[in-house]
Amino acid sequence: MKDLVLHTKNLTKKYKNHIALDNVNIKINRGDIYGLVGKNGAGKTTLMRIITGLSLQDSGEIELFSKTSKDELNKERMRTGCIIETPSFFPYLSGKKNLEYYRIQKGIPEKDCVDKVLNTVGLSDTGNKKFKHYSLGMKQRLGLALALIASPDFLILDEPINGLDPVGIVMFRDILKKLNREKNTTILISSHILGELSQLATTYGFIDNGKLIEQISAKNLEEKCREYLSVKVDDTAHASLILEKNLNCTSYQVLPDNEIKIFKYLDKPEIISEAFVKDGIKLYSISKANANLENYFIDLIGGGINA
Amino acid sequence: MLNYIKAELYKDLNRLSYKITILILVLLSVTANVLFTGPKVTALESMYMAMNCLPAVVFLIMMYIDVTEELKDKTLRNTLTSGLSREKLYISKLIIPIIISFITCIFILVFFVGSTLLFLKSGNLSSAILTNLLLRLLCAIPLYIAAISFGVLLSFILKNQYAFAYTYIGIFALMGTFIKLLCAFVSNKFYGIYNILITTNISVLTPVKNSNLTSLQMLHSIGLGFAYTIIFTIIGIIIFRKIEIK
């Protein structure tokens, strides 16, 4: 059995009449890169704020590194690093002085860790430039530096690549992959850039209107998103029978609106069309398709937008 | 908690604006002595000035290290997410201004008393008077701490820096007068409230208002200061436990 880093049990949070989180149960194993996917206002940030102790849940429980009591949770939070919303620092101090402040605060004895982490995120040349003069991308990089300064076992990153240029995004991805590979760092990350998330995540959690609607491994998702033939017919029951009896094909899925997803004969769709027509099935359309993370998510939430 | 206090001291004491503020306060105290203290002013009157200046200094320093700035810059969340409990964080937020304020007050008092010695008529100041001043200041310390704890509580409630500053100044500058008006126009019973105000009790400890300080008065001030500090801190922690940190 894998070690659980985070386990939320029926986590619920309300803001007046709005339910921000509704009985959310997520499990994150050690070494996972958990991609949290959801629309704006779906509850991703609220969940992360509760995990990090910035907000308090109305009901439910958090288990962090197998600890649940308030004092134990605070202690275990010392093993985490996070970026929640836009990184915030003292505007009148330079990036280096800000990190020096947090080095002292976290009780890290190695003074050179500040230079090392600045170098890692590509901010070693900023000199005495004050934080208030930083660009959004530089702020994000400094936020990552703070999250990494204490070599955390668990990283919680809320929209961390917002404001980063393409070079910054690649750098960011490489750092996270390296940490996960070399130090087995567990990562919980949310992003609107689903293509980027799909290059990192080993597990996904889909959240909508405060509810966790699906938790799936990247491998299973890949399986679900593989290429298929989308076939529209007048009678799906009859077509299924033909597929199984005449074409020996069991790798298919019947969808609403008389649609069938067929995962065989991808390069020979004419075999399917011929078999259907021969048996008197009306064939409306046949085309090759595949679902990516975005399509999968949109299908899952029922065609919502703003993902 | 200790690491957090160390980090805050690193930040505050290295701040250019803090250094400039100390310089301005030192210059103001020396200038006040040059302009107003002379052969006609007694050492007791000079000390009275010093004791009344301290709360103002405390307030000014608080403006630099206050919670409202952290809430405005949203840096408090970096501390909370690092695992420091809300209770410890609140208590640290009380300890830090106390340390900074006392460092500042000692610094300024050295210059103030030093310049007083320079400009006072010779023979006007003795070691007995200085010992008396020290005793009065020590008795006033719990009241100053109470004033700081009220400031910390207020800053968590009001959040906005300007609202906090004006409310804090307003309460300390006008509350005494307001209660006195209530005594005059509503009921004499309000004197009970007037007598337990922080400002009233600091004033009682000053040499001009009270030349013969009794042990009972000293104990009363110390006890009142501690009681206020405990009450304000408990209320503050209860409020802070429920606050959503943005």
Q: What do these coordinates show?
A:
- The complex is a heterodimer of chains A (about 300) and B (about 250).
- Chain A has about 300 residues and is α/β, with parallel strands linked by helices.
- Chain A is about 35% helix and about 25% strand.
- Chain A folds into two domains: about 5-215, P-loop containing nucleotide triphosphate hydrolases (Rossmann fold); about 225-290, Alpha-Beta Plaits, CATH 3.30.70.
- Chain A has helices at about 45-50, 70-75, 95-105, 115-120, 135-150, 165-185, 195-200, 220-225, 235-245, 270-280, 295-300; strands at about 5-15, 20-25, 25-30, 35-40, 60-65, 80-85, 155-160, 185-190, 205-210, 210-215, 230-235, 250-255, 260, 285-290.
- The longest helix of chain A has 18 residues, at about 165-185.
- The two termini of chain A are about 35 Å apart.
- Chain B is mostly helical.
- Chain B has one domain.
- Helices cover about 80% and strands about 0% of the residues of chain B.
- Chain B contains eleven helices and no strands.
- Chain B has helices at about 1-15, 15-35, 45-65, 65-75, 75-80, 85-120, 125-160, 160-185, 190-195, 200-205, 215-240.
- In chain B, helix 6 (about 85-120) runs antiparallel to helix 11 and helix 7 packs parallel to helix 11.
- Chain B is globular.
- At the A-B interface, helix 2 and helix 3 of A face helix 1 and helix 5 of B.
Please identify the oligomeric state: heterodimer
Number of helices of chain A: 11
List SSEs of chain A in N-to-C order: EEEEHEHEHHHEHEHEEHEHEEHEH
Low-confidence stretches of chain B: none
Mean pLDDT of chain A, as a whole number? 85
> How many individual domains of chain A?
2
What topology, given as strand order, has the largest sheet of chain A? 6-7-8-4-9-10
Q: Within the CATH hierarchy, at the fold level, what is the topology of the largest domain in chain A?
A: Rossmann fold
Counting structural domains of chain B, the number is 1
Helix share, percent of chain A: 25-40%
Name the chain pair whose interface involves the most residues.
A-B, 31 and 25 residues
For the report, how would you describe the main beta sheet of chain B? Answer: none
Distance between the termini of chain B: 21 Å
For the residues shown, what is the average pLDDT of chain B?
A: 78
- Report the sheet-strand fraction of chain B: under 5%
Q: Kindly estimate the percentage of residues of chain A that lie in beta strands according to DSSP.
A: 25-35%
Rg value of chain B:
19 Å
Structural class by sheet pairing and helices of chain A: alpha/beta
The separation of the N and C termini of chain A measures 34 Å
Q: Based on CA inertia axes, which overall geometry of chain B fits?
A: globular
